[in-house]
């Protein structure tokens, strides 16, 4: 059986690897989307889900208004609701502890807790991963935001394309099944088709909504 120490070590490894990526978000937020250092740091503190944050600044950087960016981010962040439902029985928290832990429900903390055999180790994986990422993500966001504010025109360094690349880097590991890849392709096709017909920021909302709908309706049939 896996030891508690092994769970903690694994969780900290995930935390270090993921938390360091906040530098990219901070730099791209202030250099590409025009957010201030304070706005960038507040987003990391209160939104705290990497792909959602990149979706927001990506929409704004492409010319979309903040409302479109917020809708896109909310749509993408809604997956955390399902994560919470899936790990609630594992963690068995109640009251204030359950409410406080909701902010730490992200891809990585879910992944390091749902596979554990005991409630104790599920909690260890969840909290050590979630808290280590939260602390490091916010520290590196601040460092990246300060650096990005002093970069100047992001196009000079090719950073205008970096938002999309960073978002794709976060998304790609989640496409573990062929069904998931097909849903993503359909959503992307719908978004591309909507570009000539809508204003910036709207196509990704439409494409994302289609992908979410397909993901909810298209459940693999169990073999009998």
Return Rg in Å.
Answer: 18 Å
Based on CA inertia axes, which overall geometry fits? globular
What string gives the helices and strands in order? HHHHHHHHHHHH
Largest sheet: none
What percent of residues are in strands?
under 5%
- Helix content percent band: over 70%
Which class best fits the helix and strand makeup? mainly alpha
Average per-residue pLDDT, rounded, comes to: 79
Number of strands: 0
Please give the domain count.
2
User: Total number of helical segments?
Assistant: 12
* Sequence stretches where pLDDT stays below 50 over 5 or more residues: none
- Distance from first to last alpha carbon: 31 Å
Write a structural description.
With 224 residues, the protein is an all-alpha fold. It has two domains: 171 residues, no CATH class; 49 residues. Helix content is 73%, strand content 0%. The protein is globular and about 55 Å long. The two termini are 31 Å apart.
């Amino acid at each position: 059986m896996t030891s508690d120490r092994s769970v903690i070590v694994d969780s900290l490894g995930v935390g270090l690897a993921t938390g360091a990526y906040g530098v990219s978000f901070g730099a791209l937020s202030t250099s590409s989307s025009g957010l201030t250092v304070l706005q960038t740091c507040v987003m990391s503190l209160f939104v705290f889900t990497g792909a959602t944050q990149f979706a927001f600044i990506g929409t704004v950087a492409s010319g979309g208004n903040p409302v479109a960016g917020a809708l896109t981010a909310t749509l993408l962040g809604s997956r955390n609701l399902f994560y919470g439902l899936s790990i609630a029985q594992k963690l068995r928290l109640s009251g204030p502890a359950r409410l406080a832990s909701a902010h730490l429900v992200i891809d990585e903390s879910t992944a390091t807790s749902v596979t554990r055999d005991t409630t104790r180790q599920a909690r260890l994986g969840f909290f050590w991963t979630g808290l280590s990422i939260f602390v490091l993500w916010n520290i590196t966001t601040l460092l990246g935001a300060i650096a990005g504010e002093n970069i100047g025109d992001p196009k000079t360094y090719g950073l205008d394309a970096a938002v999309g690349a960073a978002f794709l880097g976060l998304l790609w590991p989640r496409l573990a099944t062929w069904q998931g890849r097909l849903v993503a392709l359909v959503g992307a096709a719908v978004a591309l088709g909507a570009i000539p017909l809508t204003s910036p920021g709207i196509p990704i909302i439409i494409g994302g909504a289609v992908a979410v709908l397909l993901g909810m309706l298209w459940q693999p049939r169990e073999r009998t």
